[in-house]
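Progress report, Aim 2. The chain analyzed during this reporting quarter is listed below.
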Amino acid sequence: MADREIPEAIDRTVDPVVEAYKRDVDRTLLRENLKLTPEQRVIKFEQFMRGFNELRGAARRKPATSDADGDT
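Predicted structure tokens for the chain:
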């Protein structure tokens, strides 16, 4: 054990940019996702993308509506 090198101290300074982003991260969602297996995460992502593409397709098919002034 005496021949082991002691690692240098880790810089634990707070990065203000990281701290600003952390406020907007839902850690409960991250934890729930990490409970899934990699295969389950892929399946969940594929389901999300299918729904997303359906919404995008519906938005493209929606006819343009005009307001009272005749503008679209």
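The helical segments are 16-22, 27-35, 38-61. Residues 38-61 form the longest helix (24 residues). These observations will guide the mutagenesis work planned for the next reporting period.
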